[in-house]
Automatic annotation (TrEMBL):
UniProt keyword list: Coiled coil, Membrane, Transmembrane, Transmembrane helix
Domain of life (superkingdom): Bacteria
Listed name of the protein: Uncharacterized protein DUF4407
Stretch list, region Disordered: 211-234, 427-446
Protein source organism: Geodermatophilus normandii
Coiled-coil region(s): 145-206
Alphabetized Pfam families for the sequence: DUF4407
Transmembrane segments annotated in the record for this chain: 35-56, 62-81, 102-125
Amino acid sequence: MKLLSRAALSEHLLTVAGANREVLREAPKERGKQVAMGAVLLTTAGLAVVSASYALRIALHLWVPVAILGGLVWGLVILNLDRWLVVSSPRLKSKLGTLAMAVPRVVLAVLIGAVVSTPLTLAVFSAEIGTEVRVMAAEAEDEFNQRMQDDSRTAELEAEQARIAELEADLADGVTQDDVNEAPAVVDVQRRLDEVTARYEAAEAAYNAEIDGTGGTGDQGFGPATDARRADRDRLRAERDDLARQLEALKAETYDQLLAEEAQKTIDQENELADLRADVTSLQQRLDAEAAAHEAAVDDSDGILARLTAMSRLEEGNPTLGTAHRLLFWFMTALECLPILFKTMLALGPPSLYERLLALGDEKVEERVKLRMQTEYEEAEVLARSALGAAEARAARMLEAESRATGMVLDAQLEVTRQGVERWRDEQFGDTRRSNGHGTDLVKHL
């Protein structure tokens, strides 16, 4: 069973390598090389499967079985390409010609190897790259927040929101005593009242000091000075009381006036508030959409491009890591290019027994094809000549038959013509005889 499975595996590898089994039966020692070539092709295809599966997983975040299925499809594509590159590599008579034919295939193999090797090298350094990707995401987040903070729309939004809060508070409070006290006319009267009150209190203090002798003239008791100070105090008190009455009346009048103005002001404020709320809602939606888009971009910032960028940043800060990455990359690329490189090296060396037998087989096939084509050509030529002779004979017979038919037609036409002339003559002669007979009878009658 083990030998059978090994033989079956060898047969599959020969199929992968595109080997000619008829030639291998004549040169069994060459079988191992072709089996090895098939194994190399399968190895590169296996690397392509791993690479594509990892790339699909990190780039598109596919479910693992789906990513593996995609990797298998990609591996099959790479296997077919590598197999075509190996099978189609010709051996020309000159090494320079062989090398010239091999160069485009080698270049294509290098490109394929680079594509396949990139995800593999990223997978090897995935830990370091993941850390750097998170750092890049944090930097992008800080940059976005700073940009949004410096954006004029943010300042506009804050100003409109502050204005909305101010309008809402004003509408909720209505007309307050503070609004009345802040009216210019009320402020003016209040200022005058405060001044008069201060002067009154000073006059009251001076009057009391004059009575007890602690101020003024220094004499205790009542007198002319006391009367003067009392008169001054009473005058200021009357002025103060008058201003207080004016202030109360002005406040009542101002309150009524503010209530009247508040009705129209409320309408204007409500209209302004509605416009501001609409503007804020629209602006907030745009900013939220940008923030959501940025968040989605940050969430998806661990793809192939982001990891390549992170790898470049790591290489700039760590030359050792850069050297290791490049060596690994070129090693993987060389593995992917191994089949075509191996085939090119064999093509530049002396032809092997397998190649010589394969060339002889091709020559035999070419000779058989040439012989078959020559035979077919000769057979076609003989058939053409036979057909030409037969056609000529048929043409001669047809010409003879046509000549006979033409002669018979002419003879018949001549006989018909002769008979017609005889009938015409007989008719003419008959008419003449009848005319002569009538004339004789007439003469006899007379």
